[in-house]
Design goal:
The chain has 393 residues and is an alpha/beta fold. It is 31% helix and 30% strand. It is built from eleven helices and 20 strands. The strands form four sheets. A seven-stranded mixed sheet has the order 16-15-14-17-18-20-19, sandwiched between helices. A six-stranded mixed sheet has the order 2-6-5-4-1-3. A hairpin with a 5-residue loop joins strand 4 and strand 5. Helix 2 packs across helix 4. It is globular.
């Protein structure tokens, strides 16, 4: 077993059970990509078993902090069983579920979503890549399913020195899937959809939006960065009279329109607009329009903290425009999925947008990813999706 020895004083994060060891913390030792290594402090104390990544700034990702544990097929079987057992305890009203959520489930670099009878997986670290075949077989064994589609096409793979990989890992067949969520039907393509195929992390926030639209009688809804219209379906289910879905992807908008029909809503209540969101908000301002509810769910503006300042300007601009477009008593559902923008900073950005817009409001709710995307107390970096629901004064 190869040993990685940390520099003096660099063991503190592992002692706090944080699973990452950065390049600068390593004193001596090296291994092949994904190889299991023993991590020790500078004085030789055992700290963790981890997967070595010679290309990444995160040089080791810890599998286990138990010296007696062995990293073998049985280890992965136990971790997968534990993750699935947690999901069975959660009140998830959907057959679209995140089964494995990386570090939070003790499997750094592994993302697995279940869409009906298909698994969609991302192997994003050298360690999970090395164990890919074993993990795939264990996932099928644990779920009783027969098909896994690989979506290892995230840019994170490049940082690990890995090439993108997509396609059927186990099984074959159609990549189009229909799932049910809170009584709605939603379709996706595991081969072409964003992330693993869909944004399951917003499931509970879509339900909250439907309930909010219904409770407050919100009639005119603008859904920005709508993708395939999940929040639009929620608005229609909540009783909105008119919903406008805005995105710059024609295929996504086509699927959003199809979702309206699939769920039995009157197509006349829905408008799909292929346009830039920022320009759409500015044009609506010039036209004197107003809305009772606006959703801002933009793509990742700040993947790391280094991008936070530039991202803050972009978030502030769209939130300023949205707050001005809201009618008094209207609701803004605004989100950031940027890991480089924490909840406190996001709150400050939205507050600044309100000041610039001359608008005040109450924070009706603070929201995050659905609970099948868990956050652990020892790994704050796992908190990526954050949102504010604001009731305009």
């Amino acid at each position: 077993m190869k040993v990685i020895t940390l520099r003096d004083g660099k063991e503190r994060s592992l002692l706090r059970l944080h699973p990452w060891v950065f390049q600068g913390s390593v004193g001596t030792g090296k291994a092949d990509a994904g190889e299991t290594v023993r991590v020790e402090s500078s004085d030789g104390r055992f700290l963790a078993w981890g997967a070595y990544s010679p290309s990444s700034m995160i040089r080791v990702r810890a599998w286990s902090f138990d010296e007696a544990e062995r990293i073998d097929a049985a280890f992965f079987e136990r971790r997968i069983a534990r993750a699935l057992a947690l999901r069975k305890r959660l009140p998830i009203e959907s057959d679209g579920v995140r089964l494995i959520h990386g570090e939070a489930d003790g499997l750094p670099g592994l993302i697995v979503d279940r869409y009906g009878d298909v698994l969609s997986a991302q192997f994003l670290s050298a360690g999970t890549e090395r164990w890919k075949g074993t993990i795939a077989d264990l996932l099928l064994q644990a779920t009783g399913l027969t098909r896994i589609y690989e979506r290892s096409d995230s840019g994170v793979r490049k940082l690990e020195g890995l090439e993108p990989a997509t396609g059927w890992l186990r099984g074959s067949g159609a990549t189009e899937v229909t799932i049910r969520e809170h009584g709605w039907k939603l379709t996706l393509d595991v081969a072409e959809g964003h992330k693993t195929g869909f944004y399951l992390d917003q499931r509970d926030n879509r339900k909250l939006f439907a309930d909010t639209v219904r409770h407050f009688g919100l009639q005119r809804v603008l859904n920005c960065y709508c993708y395939t219209g999940g929040f639009s379906i929620a608005a229609l289910a909540g009783g909105a009279a008119q919903v406008t879905s805005v995105d710059s992807s024609a295929p996504a908008l086509a699927r959003a329109a199809a979702h309206v029909a699939l769920n039995g809503f009157d197509p006349a209540r829905h408008e799909a607009l292929d346009a830039d969101v920022n320009q759409t908000l500015r044009d609506a301002m010039k036209a004197g329009k107003s809305y009772d509810a606006i959703v801002l769910d933009p793509p990742k503006f700040a993947p790391t903290a280094a991008h936070a300042e530039r991202a803050a300007r972009a978030y502030k601009d769209i939130n300023r425009l949205a707050l001005r477009l809201l009618a008094p008593g209207g609701m803004l559902f605004t989100f950031s999925c940027s890991g480089g923008v924490g909840p406190e900073l996001f709150h400050k950005i939205v507050a600044g947008a309100g000041m610039d817009a001359g608008v005040d409001g109450i924070i009706y709710a603070r929201v995050a990813a659905a609970p099948d995307h868990p956050q652990t107390i020892v790994f704050p970096e796992g908190e990526y999706l954050k949102g504010l629901v604001i009731l305009k004064s």
